């Protein structure tokens, strides 16, 4: 499903964020991307949804190169990839419902379809009763659930999350990660960049470790550290 071939990313300032990374992630996998700050985790995530382009190497998603996409093809890629960030990135002047609906409005879905899908997504994340609230009326964990609903409402085949629990306490972090695991069980490929040692150790999923831009470990049922 996701193939990186000899991917190197050098930013314009000369920083080598990724060095010759080759990795294959199959459909339906759950993968943790671990490593210290600056290891290249965010860059890896940003390459997958084409927020950045690699300097060298190839990236295939569903068998297609995402490097040479035409401008008009980028929305199709993004429709298939849901993205969740550490800082939620919700629109503060819009309700929970509107935040999630926005993802479909930009894709020009019909209103009735939007309503139905948004409510399904909010029920999935346990926020069906808070649709009319605004982000500031919610806890951090609830705000992250809204962000997850927004990411999955398009039914993407891939969900990527960059430090999704970075701003949350341990118990809430566990709940958010359980939710991502539940989404994965329904068939979505999930990639989570994280510093959260406790969660990675508890989940026993595939662990890809980066260090200074290099892939240094890839374990089928790994722990945070060796
Ligand atoms: P991580 O997510 O593991 O902390 P990043 O991918 O954010 O790692 O960063 C890897 C390296 O690339 C770091 O040295 C970081 O400072 C650098 N970097 C990240 N984004 C940019 C950018 N937009 N421009 C220049 N350097 C960047
Ligand atoms: P996080 O630590 O949450 O993964 P980062 O620190 O990697 O986030 O990146 C936050 C933002 O700052 C990103 O948009 C990234 O492109 C930018 N950035 C990170 N490091 C650098 C850098 N050395 N030079 C310029 N921009 C950077």
Automatic annotation (TrEMBL):
UniProt domain ABC transporter: residue ranges: 2-225
Main location class: membrane
PROSITE patterns (UniProt xref): ABC_TRANSPORTER_1, ABC_TRANSPORTER_2
Membrane topology term: Peripheral membrane protein
Alphabetic keyword roster: ATP-binding, Cell cycle, Cell division, Cell membrane, Membrane, Nucleotide-binding
Pfam families: ABC_tran
Protein localization: Cell membrane
GO molecular-function terms, A-Z: ATP binding; ATP hydrolysis activity; transmembrane transporter activity
The keyword ATP-binding is annotated on this UniProt entry: yes
Classification via SUPFAM superfamilies: P-loop containing nucleoside triphosphate hydrolases
The keyword Disulfide bond appears for this protein: no
One of the protein's GO biological processes: cell division
Known role: Part of the ABC transporter FtsEX involved in cellular division.
PANTHER family, alphabetized: CELL DIVISION ATP-BINDING PROTEIN FTSE, IMPORT ATP-BINDING PROTEIN
Assembly notes: Homodimer. Forms a membrane-associated complex with FtsX.
Protein name per Swiss-Prot or TrEMBL: Cell division ATP-binding protein FtsE
Organism field: Calderihabitans maritimus
